[in-house]
Amino acid sequence: AQVTRPLAREAPFTVFVAAARGSSTSGGMADAKPAEDKKKAEKKLLDQDDEAFCGYCSVHILDQDGIAGRTLGSSVKAPVSIVSAPGADTVVFEAGFNPGDPLFYLELRNEEQFYLWGQWWMDGPKQSETNAFCSLVPLKTQDCHKQLESTPGEFKAQLHCPYLRNSTSRLMDATFQTQEKKFKTKLCKATFSMPRDAWMEYKAYRVRLWKSGKIWQGMAKGDDDEEKKEEGGKKDD
User: Per-residue b/e over 171-187, b at no fewer than 16 CB within 10 Å?
Assistant: First the structure.
């Protein structure tokens, strides 16, 4: 008589193979998830459409030694907005200052020893080296007044973004507007334009800076873990 081999014995092997395949697949998915999350974080930080942009600027009067004045009318600060259309080839930034404010204003003094200087940054009201993106090339206030004689209420200056490649040859044009209030020339608006490729280059630099910080944090954590292991080993001895 022909003997039929039971099929039940094949089940454990089949189940084992399926389980092995399942564990391999889940392991691959687990490895892919951190990389996917990292890419999402990088994309969010890049903010290609400037949906999360929040900028600020401060403008100061400096003396011939580069020291900021501490008297009334020596500095002013304001939020910065992007006023150009989304995706435009040129990104336009604008900040407004209230010339009617009796305390917090900037007076453009027509005196030889004074310079106009300022900084632009993003991500919060406090400026730091990690969120600054450009600064005003110091300009003599007397030169500003000379421009105001030919173009009343408006003068030009240049901004420098040091994080760009060949940055000194890629200065950006800025326009400042003034108003006369009680025999004082007060700053009322600052506008500057930045080519989109330069703006995206700066934001790519920010992503690299963030990634570099993450690497250093990981290395520091690894060093701490090694120290803890060594300390634990000494205690056991």
Answer: ebebebebbeeeeebbb
CB 61 within 8 A of CB 69: yes
pLDDT digits (tens, 9 = 90+) for 88-134: 999 999 999 999 999 999 999 999 999 999 999 999 899 998 899 99
Q: What angle do CA 162, 165, 167 make, to 5 degrees?
A: 45
Q: Is 134 helix (H, G, I), strand (E, B) or coil?
A: strand
Helix (H) or strand (E) holding 94: strand 90-96
Q: Which two tokens stand for residue 19?
A: 């389980």
What is the pTM (predicted TM-score) of this model?
Answer: 0.75
Structure tokens at 157: 């200056």
Give tens-digit pLDDT for 175-224. Answer: 999 999 989 999 999 999 999 999 999 999 999 988 887 786 766 565 55
Helix crossing, 10-46 with 196-236: angle to 10°? 130
Two structure tokens written together for 47: 């903010």
